[in-house]
Amino acid sequence: xxxxxxxxxxxxxxxxxxxxxxxxxxxxxxxxxxxxxxxxxxxxxxxxxxxxxxxxxxxxxxxxxxxxxxxxxxxxxxxxxxxxxxxxxxxxxxxxxxxxxxxxxxxxxxxxxxxxxxxxxxxxxxxxxxxxxxxxxxxxxxxxxxxxxxxxxxxxxxxxxxxxxxxxxxxxxxxxxxxxxxxxxxxxxxxxxxxxxxxxxxxxxxxxxxxxxxxxxxxxxxxxxxxxxxxxxxxxxxxxxxxxxxxxxxxxxxxxxxxxxxx
Length: 263
Ligand SMILES: Nc1ncnc2c1ncn2[C@@H]1O[C@H](COP(=O)(O)OP(=O)(O)OP(=O)(O)O)[C@@H](O)[C@H]1O
Prior knowledge:
Blueprint (H helix, E strand, L loop, with lengths): L5 E10 L7 E11 L4 E5 L6 H9 L6 E6 L2 E2 L7 E4 L11 H5 L1 H5 L4 H14 L15 H14 L4 E5 L7 H18 L2 E6 L2 H7 L2 E5 L6 E6 L11 H28 L1
Parallel strand pairs: 3-8, 3-9, 6-7, 7-8
Antiparallel strand pairs: 1-2, 1-4, 4-5, 9-10
Adenosine-5'-triphosphate (ATP) binds next to β2 and α1.
Keywords: ATP-binding, Nucleotide-binding, Transport
InterPro entries: AAA+_ATPase, ABC_transporter-like_ATP-bd, ABC_transporter_ATP-bind, P-loop_NTPase
GO molecular function, one term: ATP binding
């Protein structure tokens, strides 16, 4: 049997902060992700989606359970697991090329090799000729594409994206989704994308993992059995949208009730 790219075995996380009630963010979370699979995390606000990405990235420890990267327990960050945030988080003082190859410079890759890689990656994300610009000279969509290029430069096996397109307008967002599918096929990485958007989940995912309200657990795992692209007019698309709306409704109510009870 093939070893999964990632295995989450009974993972839990309790956040402890001084002088505050501990927060049970995740509880008994179980999931396997295959190589080259595109998985979307969908769930109500505060159910631990970002927390889970940080733990998979190795930036936070689990409180219980195990996370295995190709069968090996994760205890810290690795170039094999890249993470992209909503706001692109490029270094404002570096050029786009230097941002893209930042990880490679940490690895000691030569300047000539870095330049070649930057050129090639910027071309593949539609930013050819933009390498000398600074992040604030680019639009939001362009910055997010540069962040994708930076994450891909170190050839991660797993690419995690935390609401990467949430800050973009609807047209740019749709274009970015198409672009991401192309990039995913080329990179052959597994992708985990966090979103609040049911449409984004249906358009992109091989499987959608729906979270319960906090503490986050797996509520449902839904494979999207439609070829891509997936037109919203397709009756199957409608059926998925109804299904996710129903699955989320209870959890959003629960999350809201819990917030109210804390006031
Ligand atoms: N560093 C931290 N210290 C203490 N509590 C935290 C920390 N990070 C997150 N939390 C808490 O853990 C819970 C889960 O947060 P998390 O950001 O993972 O949820 P989320 O599902 O990504 O939410 P959203 O969809 O709103 O981004 C929340 O109650 C949050 O306040």
